[in-house]
Amino acid sequence: MNKKQLIIKAFENLDADMLEVLLNDGQAYQDVPKDIFVEELRRYFTKIKTYEGVDLNFKACKGHCGSCNKEKTGYSFINSENVSMMSLIFDETEDDYTDIYKCGSFSPIDKEIETEWSSISFYEEDKVNYLPTVKNFQDERLSTKAVKEIETEIENEGILSADFCVEWYQNYEKLQNWSEIFNGKTYRYKKEVIDYISKLSFVVSMMKAEKLAYKYWQEFINIPVISEESIKDWLIRCDHDLHNHIYGFPYESDFKNGYFLVDKIKFNLLDVYYIQNLSEVLLKYFDWIPFPNPITEKEDQNYSNDDFSDFPF
User: Fold this and answer.
1) Would you say which domain of life the source belongs to (predicted)?
2) Which domain holds residue 169?
3) Which pLDDT tens digit goes with each residue over 284-296?
4) N or C, which terminus of the chain has less Cβ within 10 Å?
């Protein structure tokens, strides 16, 4: 086998060690240095090998890009179940590959891909041409500050309170820039803070809804007799106003010590006491809640009418 054939074989065999030997030192692949490229492949290959019941007999199927680089050719590595573990463009010379990079719109020749895994990705800072902007420096400093604040609070207090969570989330939510997510840009310095933002997102929504939940709880306990007819109006309004919380409380709770867990982070259970109780009530009487909710349906209808009212026809 020549060098190019050995590289393709290494991809088929999920062999990052062989790729480390074969790929060129000092050369960039998918815009990142060789060592970072190989290390990300190693992580991905290791993950694939843990999948149960998946055929790892991947074969290189030649094809071309179906979108941005239609003149470019490469290979999709597909198993007997028509699962592609990745599709890559290979820029080449006669005896070597000058670049290897992921293709999101690959069309293999004479082979159909039923499922394609997300494969590899890199942080912007990893790229050889990365030039940080003023905003990058500002975001990095803010991300570091946010992580330090929440980890200090966890270390000192043990349990996060609603006052801390709501204020922290409002201060740093903006770091989760959705435009970056959609254009495929991710930054290493944001990794930890975005993880915390994601964990706090639903928790904060519950904490903010606690006052409204208390109001509905007081209404519920004052209903003399619980029947479908007696709580119908209450269910409709409660379902509409607290719709995100109608499927039961989703977190492991320690009632004795007064906390619930989100990925090992402890939150004060009393801060969502009424949300938790209401969620169980709504779940219990879920079959009595009309679908679609009449209030939501009416709002949707009004919104639709308002949309068309601006048109001259």
Assistant:
1) Bacteria
2) 134-208
3) 998 998 888 888 8
4) C
